[in-house]
Design brief:
The protein has 107 residues and is α/β, with parallel strands linked by helices. The protein contains five helices and three strands, in the order αβαβααβα. A three-stranded parallel β-sheet has the order 1-2-3, covered by helices on one side. The longest helix is centred in the last third of the chain and has 17 residues. The protein is globular and about 35 Å long. The termini are far apart.
């Protein structure tokens, strides 16, 4: 529901992937991103957003380059499943460098 809850969950559980909305109550998604990277540097961050234009400016170049990808609302369940499969396949194969590599998906 909010950024504080997300941070507490990652501190207390083992997550491979976090979906973070850029706009969130209490702490925004960009602040959550920074905290989660400190807590668990290898966590894959998938940003979610309503905006389609200017995403790089909104998120910022440093974060944009380290986000696994971002997806635009509303999302398709098949799209989410495909992203999760990609992350897990990379983890299983050991091909994961720990850094992002996919740009935000444009529709």
């Amino acid at each position: 529901n909010n950024g504080d809850e997300a941070i507490k969950l990652v501190q207390n559980r083992n997550f491979d992937v976090a979906f973070i909305d850029v706009i969130m109550p209490v702490i925004n998604g960009l602040e959550i991103y920074n905290v989660l990277r400190e807590i668990k540097p290898d966590i894959k961050i998938i940003m979610t957003i309503n905006y389609r234009e200017g995403i790089e400016d909104l998120i910022g170049p440093n974060i944009y380059g380290n986000v696994y990808t971002c997806i635009y609302k509303p999302f398709d369940v098949k799209e989410i499943m495909h992203l999760l499969e990609q992350v897990m396949l990379k983890k299983i194969k050991g091909a994961d460098s720990g850094k992002g590599g996919l740009a935000c998906q444009k529709k």
